[in-house]
Amino acid sequence: MSNYQQDIQAIANLREAMGSGWRDINPEYAARMKTQNRFNTHLDIAKYTADIMRKDMDEYDADTSKYTQSLGCWHGFIGQQKLISIKKHFGHTDKRYLYLSGWMVAALRSEFGPLPDQSMHEKTVVADLIRELYTFLKQADAWELNHLFRDLDAARDAGDTAKAEEITAKIDNFETHVVPIIADIDAGFGNAEATYLLAKKLIEAGACCIQIENQVSDEKQCGHQDGKVTVPHEDFLAKIRAVRYAFLELGVDNGVIVARTDSLGAGLTKQIAVTNEPGDLGDQYNAFLDGDYIDSAADINNGDVVIKANGKLLKPKRLQSGLFQFKPGSGEDRVVLDCITSLQNGADLLWIETEKPHVGQIGGMVNRIREVVPNAKLVYNNSPSFNWTLNFRQQVFDAWSEAGKDVSAYDRAKLMSVEYDETELAAEADEKIRTFQADASREAGIFHHLITLPTYHTAALSTDNLAKGYFGDEGMLAYAGGVQRKEIREGIATVKHQDMAGSNIGDDHKEYFAGDAALKAGGKDNTMNQFG
């Protein structure tokens, strides 16, 4: 007996046990509703997806071609359509996640209006978006299963037993649209207690993986902006522990923590670390401070700060803002220390924010980290802040120059120009972009590739194309030909937008509840029928 049939039988037995008051409860209808709602709470989702992520991490350790991917989504509908598309084109969701971008939350979800990525938006909108994403993914389950249930009824009505058995097997083996979300908690929105409280909200909303960065929470900047300020390691480790305690409190014992370091592009610190003895973690952090060694108190001016480092008195350089500078060129060394320290103190994965997508640069840092922590692996931001075309054309140009190949036909500074689009150099650069994720996973320890805010850009681009045509000479053809016809030709389910929004699910539920007296929306006069 199939799992679906077992559920029907179990509810039939319960109905019989409950007596005549349950006589109008149809066991198959109840079983269908139960099947459509696999997860009773979003905490169940966090536990389920944490298991998936841990399995994927183990598989990557054994085979680096088994890396994972995600796209950042700023609305539940966008996340839902992404997973429906993945299932349609690839048949499964294996190794595909969602990313929740703090940048997009700030820019698109704050009640203050559009904001830069500087932790000025409300804390609660992060958890709200996680909850919304999973609500839409659960609805995608109900939507797809509802079609299977209707197909099953049609096969039975036609007396096609083989078809009915085939559909029942699909119901039994149904793969949920629910996948892991890597959730951006920024720098924790406050101290370690604030980080713990917010982490609980994210986990309760369904997050199995939380990404936290080592910037100061009140001066936090986007990883691709200037003016980033880091905190001493002990401050950051306290927040990592706070997130772990939140996972353990809520029973997500294998929750995943991504420790992000912005040290490569951060030249400032707000604090001088506490140090108790030479060579401890605080002393290592302070060793990167830029400053001047002094010989006597006469070298100290009013308001100067002086610390003992390397057995001598160091006067760190201090800006008018009160911030302290790190030594120029110390970024990579600080990144390596940050990453090793985070992994040795409870983090599971690393995120190194870089200024360009360069496999050699990333791999060089990861190799140094792996000398201490052999299974270190990254979540990497394939950022829209990078000019991918220009970066890779310049990388190819440099490689050709080093190899002695003639590059006189190209101007390195102008390689973004359309005049180079059909050249051999451009073709080689595009191939390197195409294989970047596989190359970086193999050579630079990247377990998970994400694009933080791609759907921000796709929404703007598609809206621009529609507006240009609709308000121009194309008129209604801009929509009919540029949108609706493409939906039909490419099998995009939203062409039947009433169905996608749950109209058929609601009609079937009405029938469950009221039988023949149900007033349905999907009859012969529903214009959705024009789409077949």
UniProtKB/TrEMBL annotation:
Its cofactor is Mg(2+). PANTHER family: BIFUNCTIONAL GLYOXYLATE CYCLE PROTEIN (PTHR21631:SF3), ISOCITRATE LYASE/MALATE SYNTHASE (PTHR21631). Can also use Mn(2+) ion. Mg(2+) binds at residue 184. NCBIfam families: PRK06498.1. The keyword Transcription does not apply. It comes from the Bacteria. GO terms for molecular function: isocitrate lyase activity; metal ion binding. It catalyses: D-threo-isocitrate = glyoxylate + succinate. The active site is at residue 222. It comes from Spongiibacter nanhainus. The keyword Magnesium applies. This is Isocitrate lyase. GO terms for biological process: carboxylic acid metabolic process. Keywords: Lyase, Magnesium, Metal-binding.
